[in-house]
Amino acid sequence: MRAICWMGKTDVRVEQVPEPSILSERDAIVRITSSAICGSDLHLYNGFVPTMKSGDILGHEFMGEVVETGSGVRNLQVGDRVVVPFPIACGACAQCARGLFSTCENTNPNAWMAEKLWGYSPAGIYGYSHMLGGYPGGQSEYARVPFADVNPLKVPAGIPDEKVLFLSDIFPTGYMGAEMCNIQPGDTVAVWGCGPVGQLAIKSASLLGAERVIAIDRVPFRLRMARELAGAAETIDYEELDVHDALRDMTGGRGPDACIDAVGLEAHVPGPVGVYDRVKQATGLETDRPHALRQAIMACRNGGTVSVIGVYGGFVDKFPMGSLMNRSLTLRGGQCHVQRYMTPLLERIVKGEVDPSFVITHRLPLDDAPRGFAMFGHKTDECLKVVLKP
Questions:
Q1: pTM of the predicted model over 0.85
Q2: Using CB atoms within 10 A as the burial measure, which of 123, 292, 296, 365 is most buried?
Q3: Where are the beta strands (DSSP E) in the chain?
Q4: Bridge partners, residue 362, by sequence
Q5: For the CA atoms of the chain, what is the radius of gyration?
Q6: How far apart are CA 205 and CA 65, in angstroms?
């Protein structure tokens, strides 16, 4: 079969690889009908995630048709359409019982690798390094889905792939980012980053009752989408305005009630601070560029909440712990517990309350994925979200 393989930094290729097979009674094989390039994939593409190996199959946002099941999978039938959540959960451990599916204790066979960096291991993730399990991803023609009796979500007939594909990751991620803000009537929420997750965090904050959402980015077409499609009331171009001062002015000197970091470890910032972070990252003195997180903490109102859904991999410098502690801020974050949100968000889609496909800007055949990665990574051709069709 054809699959998108990571061959090295900024080098992804379409390769012929063996088709997956059933390895456990709880497995299913899914023929991929749609997959997507995620912003998190760019961290792999740009070489920031360790333990990648040449030939690894990428992709953790995918859906398709069940073509084979193991003997232990009784809730799925051949022919079912399913969306597959990116964290792989066993459904039986203490963390799964708490609904913390992305921290499942049983699905990362290489937990020792993650423990060296993070203390404890999260769940395994498709196509996202050997530190997170080494599972082949879904930017391919077929994928093996472990624990298929508890993870995939069946999709009702008649709903196009594009309306439900993002239940695999970015819609639940954006929604969880907004939910962690504990939004109250009248709240103002600021969102750093207008990529796909940021757009859906903006939309979700409105769904959860925010009175006003302010979007922050530097790319004109992303800011335009935030206003016209995601529902942001106002936008800030951080290359044109000082973000802290602008938010202070917009909120009567108080600051936003909640701030969402949808940027993560590759944050950009003009001026000396940006140079500082890039030099420290290049020399190995810090692994992540955390400028958006610093700004979100400093800008949030006293007693407010900072929600972190942008991906961080290791260690950051100049973390404003004094601001966090002295101003009674709440800091929350996490890889999304996708399985918790898939069904209620599917219901919102079916009812017509939201259509997350508004973020799609490019549809490409699988063979054009390398071009899709380059466009998305360099933000050319107004590329925000690429859907791949095997």
A1: yes
A2: 296
A3: 2-8, 11-16, 28-37, 56-57, 62-69, 81-84, 87-88, 124-125, 142-145, 153-154, 188-192, 212-217, 234-237, 258-261, 305-308, 330-333, 362-365, 386-389
A4: 386
A5: 20
A6: 32
